[in-house]
Amino acid sequence: FFFNVTATPEIYTRSIVGSVRCVQETERRVHGIQKIIMETDAPLKEVDPFGDIRINEAKAQIEKAKRDTWNNITKIRTEGDDMENNRRIKEELRREERAKKNFK
Fold first, then answer.
1. Largest CA distance in the chain
2. What is the rounded CA–CA span in Å between residue 12 and residue 15?
3. Which DSSP letter does residue 5 get?
4. Minimal CA–CA distance to 100: which of 71, 92, 68?
5. Is the pLDDT of residue 64 over 50?
6. pLDDT mean across residues, the chain
7. Are 83 and 77 in contact (CB under 8 A)?
């Protein structure tokens, strides 16, 4: 705090009292936070030695599921394209047959 030389002692007293209150409030909050940390600081569990292996197995399963999904999507799209191509071929054959009948 900066004190004004021309200020009255009453102002100085109020400033000091306000400062003390701020410090006390800060100390109370810090003490409360420290208490919470100490109460919630549980001991660490033992590390699972197979954790990395399990994670890698799970990742492999996810990648397999992705591949299977993409393969199924590709299969469905290919079948759909084949059906559409066959439909167009049949339609074109019907047009050719109608054209031949109309020219006879």
1. 123
2. 5
3. T
4. 92
5. yes
6. 78
7. no
Alpha carbon 63 to its chain centroid, in Å, reads 19
Residue range 6-48, pLDDT digits in tens:
555 555 556 666 677 777 787 878 777 777 766 666 665 676 7
- Compute the distance between CA of residue 81 and CA of residue 70 in angstroms, rounded to an integer: 16
Q: How big is the chain, counted in residues?
A: 104
The set of residues, in sequence order, having a beta carbon less than 8 Å from that of 12 and lying 6+ positions away, is: 3
Question: Rounded CA gap, 87 and 81, in Å?
Answer: 10
| Both structure tokens of 102 | 């109309």
